Every structure is written in structure tokens, then in C-alpha cells.
Amino acid sequence: MKSIILRKPTVIIFVTIFMAVLLSSCGGNANSSSSESSGDPSGSDPAVIPVGVCSTAKPDAYIDEDGKLTGYDVEVLKAIDELLPQYELDLQTMEFSEILNSLATSRVLAGSQEFEWNAERANTYLFGEVPLIGYNTFIITLDDPQYENITGLADLAGKSTLASQGGSVEAIINSWNEENPDKEIKKVISGGTSEDYVNFLNNRVVDFIIANEQNFVRWTEDFNVDNWVFHEQAKIYDSNSYILFEKNQVQLQQDFDDALQELSDNGKLAELSIEFYGKDYTVH
User: Fold this and answer.
1) What is the DSSP string of 222-278?
2) What is the CATH number of the domain that holds 194?
């Protein structure tokens, strides 16, 4: 796990060291989380907030050619950091499922990786209320005549798809299989990296994948894929993604939401969406 702290230029070194000691419970100490995070609103003593992000989920969060952590989620977090002087965000890179585990065990206080709302997650984590981005998903297959007229999961009974552990696709497939035992969809669990989606579909390890338009465009461009079909008529669900918080971080969630709303209102979110996805997928 790699940790990258977004330090504000106004924070003096000895203050940072002092706060690192004082707030060490915000890092790896699981006992830190039982109370809400605190920070002096005046900004003189910013509270260090560990935030879980991915580093292999381009364009959401990834390491660029210069070795820097970037991506839509990362740049949104940096913009939030600038608007909240009472906090100093400590971005810690980890796998998708590890973000959820770290939130549940209070090793991080917030996490961002296009998390969509579902009832199971809502029982464990605190969801932000301002959407990070729109996340409407569709079926994607190889260019194959057998998939020409598909309109949904009912047309793919017995086929297999890729799902990341603890992700929304896994929840959707589990629900589908429970409700339609005669039309069961097989799951192949992976880490959910961009390479996984491309390799698993190209090599026919799975028959189809479920993803949004922004990922379809990015993957086909980045990996020179020319034999995929994005089935617009086969929408799986309409959704939005949100930043997640450790269950007790009510004040942190409210502060993040205020900052996100400001970034939405002033057009920054749309600007970042166009930069990383090529189109404005934000929720207006």
C-alpha cells in the first residue's frame, strides 16, 4: 500500500509532524474511528484524513507515465482538499475490495472508487449524498452474431461475466440469480483492473462484461480494442457513484458533500469528467 499526502503549502513542517503524532489514530489504528474526525475549522491545525483510492483503475485513479497518482477520483479529491482547510487528505492506494475492508475496519475514513449505492453497503458504510459522477451501465460483448439482438441479462442465461469482489456487478448478478434460477449468470471474480476487463473478455474467459460508456471508450482506446460492441439497448441499471465514509464520519461526509456541491456548481466536476472521460458524465 502506497500513501501519498496532499500537503497544503501553508502547513509548516513542525505542525505537520505534530499533527501526524497527535492524529496517528487516523492512519493505521483501528481504534481511531469510533468518533467523528475533528479539525480546527480555522485551518491552523488540519486533521490528517486517510482516504482509500485505487491506482490501477484508469481513468478513475491510476499512476501516470511520470509516476504520479491521478485520475478523475484523485483530482476530485485534490479539489476537495483545496476547499477544506480543516483537513489534509492522505491518499492511500489499495485494491478495490481493500478500500471497503479498510473503511469497515476504520483504517481509512473515506474511500473513492466509483462506489454505487446498495442496501448492503449502506448498512456498513456512510454514503456521501452529492454524486461523484453518473454511472449508468450496459452490456459489452465481443463482436459476435450471437449477441446481435441482446437486450438484457435474460438473453445471456448460462453465460459468464466479470465481477470484482464486493462490487456492484457482483451484487447485481447475485440478485439476478436469486430471482431467476433458471437463467443463472456465471460470475468470474477478479481484482477489477482495466487489464482484467480487457484480457478476460478478449480471451473469452468471460462472455460479457458490464460497464459504463466512459470505461468502454477508455478501454477500447487504451488497449487498441476494435472487436467490442457496446449494447446501448441492453442497459443494466441507472446509477450514480459516491464517496464512501467510515460509518461514524458524519461531519466529514457533510464537509465533503459541501465541497463536492461547490465543485459541481462551479463546473469543476464537469471539467474533470471531460478531461478524463472525454464527456461530461456528471449529475446536474
Assistant:
1) HTT--SEEEEEEEEEE--EEEEEE-TT-HHHHHHHHHHHHHHHHTTHHHHHHHHHHS
2) 3.40.190.10
Asked if residues 142 and 205 have their Cβ atoms less than 8 Å apart, the reply is no
Asked if the bond preceding 59 is cis, omega within 30° of 0, the reply is: yes
Q: Are 23 and 157 in the same domain?
A: no
Positive or negative, the CA dihedral 267, 268, 271, 277 is negative
Residue 172 structural domain = 137-237
Alpha carbon separation from 100 to 71, 92, 97, 112, 156 (Å, rounded):
19, 13, 5, 10, 30
Same domain membership, residue 248 and residue 110:
yes
Indicate whether 82 pLDDT > 90: yes
The pLDDT value recorded for residue 1 is 53
Place of cell 489534509: 88
Q: Are residues 115 and 141 in the same domain?
A: no
Are 233 and 246 in the same domain? no
Count of Cβ atoms closer than 10 Å to residue 233 Cβ: 10
The answer to the question of residue 283 being in a domain is no
Residues 39 and 251: their CA atoms lie apart, in Å, by: 10
Over residues 210-232, the pLDDT tens digits come to: 999 988 998 999 899 999 999 99
Do 198 and 225 touch, CB atoms closer than 8 A? yes
β-pair type (137-142, 208-212): antiparallel
pLDDT, one tens digit per residue, over 13-44 is 333 333 333 333 333 333 333 334 445 545 47
